[in-house]
Amino acid sequence: MHSHVLAGIDDGPRSTEGSLELLRAAAAAGITTLMATPHVSSRYRNDTATIAAAAGELERARGEREAGVEVRVGAEVAVTRVAELEPEELAGLCLGDGPWLLVEPPFSGMLGGIDATIAGLHRLGHRVLLAHPERCPAFHRDPALLESLIDAGVLASLTSGSLVGRFGSQARRLALGLLDAGLAHNVASDAHDAVHRPPSIAAELAETGRAGLEDWLTREVPAAILGGGEIPRRPASATPPPSSRRPSWLRRRG
Ligand SMILES: [Fe+2]
Fold it and tell me: Which residue of 39, 220, 221, 236 has the smallest Cβ count within 10 Å?
């Protein structure tokens, strides 16, 4: 649901060969569909045209060795840029055929206004998949804000590397807490290359020792998002989470 596989338009691969390497690594990791979600931010000012051009370039370059992975195109839209984008442009940045946008919260500073921005997207008919909330310091400080966004219909997409500590202990703690509390709906690689930030999900999920959610997190929910259909219920076998695993901030909230 989240990768930077397109070359030369953000902090993903610089060359088409890098994109092809990433695709081959994805195939080796058992990934069959990769969402290309280039940054649309104040730093990387992509739009539907630059993204379509880069996707076309990759499509023309790929061959037999990369045939096993389908690439679909969306975007990772920084919450701070949403207000600057016309409704038609926002519609063109959606994930697959449905109303879902992958929205990136800021990594620094405050989250002031994120709830209003998301409410505005809802009014336009969009739904929001929030990219790696567990890596956002403001949610470390105030996980209840994240919970209120999820109550309002937002879904949370964790980065697989967060589950195993690649983004620090706080991100790991919040990622696992969200997973155990039923507040995470997807795990994605957020791959940027074949090696350092690779397209790997299953290995990280397995390392957490939590079983029973893999298909729902990585196949069923993504398929519903891409198709614009109803989000399937979390498997009953995985809910409710064992009380020993309930994160302390949820216990505090009763
Ligand atoms: Fe990303």
Answer: 236
CA of 142 to the centre of ligand 1 (A): 22
Structural domain that includes position 128: 16-252
From the list 171, 178, 161, 147, the residue with the least C-alpha distance to 247 is 178
Distance 76 CA to ligand 1 centre (A): 6
CATH number at residue 29: 3.20.20.140
Residue 7 lies in a domain: no
Q: What is the 195 CA–ligand 1 centroid distance (Å)? A: 16
Q: 10 C-alpha to center of ligand 1: Å?
A: 10
Distance, CA of 62 to CA of 80 (rounded, Å): 34
For the cut 90, the answer to whether the pLDDT of residue 53 exceeds it is yes
Question: How do residues 136-177 score in pLDDT, each as one tens digit?
Answer: 999 999 999 999 999 999 999 999 999 999 999 999 999 999
DSSP, collapsed to helix, strand or coil, labels residue 38 as coil
